[in-house]
Recover the amino acids of this structure.
């Protein structure tokens, strides 16, 4: 099993909470649309620390082939399109569980 974790920090804007909520909804909907995605959890940050990220995605796949299929899936690409210009930075960790 492979776990894929992504942290997103949004660019400063007045609608940051709305962007985070919409992104969470988009990501949550992927579970029913991408068969390679075996499990997913999306969390909205509650920390007010300046170094904190705004949202975290944890996704599980059978193997690297599943993760690679997810990366190019049209529904995942729609999420990436939504994020265009909205993130300041992101961080990714992939590891076997």
């Amino acid at each position: 099993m492979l776990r894929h974790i992504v942290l997103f920090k949004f660019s400063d804007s007045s609608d940051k909470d709305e962007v985070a909520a919409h992104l969470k909804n988009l990501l949550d909907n992927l579970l029913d649309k991408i068969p390679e995605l075996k499990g997913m959890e999306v969390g909205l940050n509650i920390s007010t620390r300046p170094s904190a990220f705004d949202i975290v995605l944890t996704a599980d796949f059978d193997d690297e082939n599943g993760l690679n299929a997810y990366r190019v899936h049209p529904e995942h690409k729609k999420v990436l399109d939504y994020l265009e210009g909205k993130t300041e930075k992101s961080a990714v960790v992939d590891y076997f569980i």
Observations:
- The longest strand covers residues 87-96.
- The chain is about 35% helix and 35% strand.
